[in-house]
Write a structure and sequence with these properties.
Helix content is 43%, strand content 13%. It has 8 helices and 4 strands. The strands form 2 sheets. It has a two-stranded antiparallel ribbon. Helix 4 packs across helix 7. The longest helix has 22 residues. The C terminus is likely disordered.
């Protein structure tokens, strides 16, 4: 009995590999919209959910291939467990680093269930945080030890414009004139 089960499993994986090869693997444009977000095409590019107005004026959704390449994770569809653990929403159109400013979102992202088990989502938010001048592991450490401090560190990361000091004031005679566009 065990050999027939082993044979069935072997045949299943062989057929799956053949089918995936024949179909060209995961293509974002072929994915259903309910699993598009947080998926990675076989080409290694992230899939993203977009919306558009149909000919009759309804909002429709489509899965598209982005230009963002993910290293070492091609052909990946995020699990529902990770989507839930990380507190993300597959039906969201676009993604923003603004969610890092929400303590509840950061707490879920930095939770062991997400941070240690969901490398695709963590990689995505790692890059979003880096774009804001924030190192996600440091933010998560601050979130674990002192959640209020985590928000202060994020807000003071240097990416947001602060108050104008007297040295950089437009009234400073030594300051160069702003470039015209």
């Amino acid at each position: 009995m065990a050999s027939s089960t082993k044979m069935t499993v072997t045949l299943f994986f062989a057929f799956s590999a053949f089918l995936q090869g024949a179909l060209g693997g995961i293509v974002c444009e072929n994915l259903p919209t309910d699993i598009c977000s947080f998926s990675i095409a076989s080409s290694g590019k992230r899939c993203l959910l977009e919306n558009y107005a149909s000919k009759v004026g309804n909002v429709e959704y489509q899965c598209r291939t982005s230009e963002v390449v993910v290293e070492r994770m091609a052909g990946y569809i995020e699990t529902d467990e990770c989507v839930q653990a990380c507190g993300v929403d597959r039906s969201s159109v676009g993604i923003s680093s603004d969610s890092l400013l929400e303590p509840q979102s950061t707490a879920k992202l930095c939770s062991p269930a997400c941070y240690q088990n969901c490398p695709n989502i963590v990689d995505l938010y790692f890059n979003l945080a880096a774009g804001e001048g924030v190192f996600l592991p440091d933010l998560c450490e601050a979130q674990r030890t002192n959640p209020r401090r985590a928000m202060v560190e994020l807000l003071s990361s240097g990416t947001a414009p602060g108050p104008i000091s007297s040295e950089s004031s437009a009234f400073n005679a030594d300051a160069p004139a702003p470039a015209s566009m």
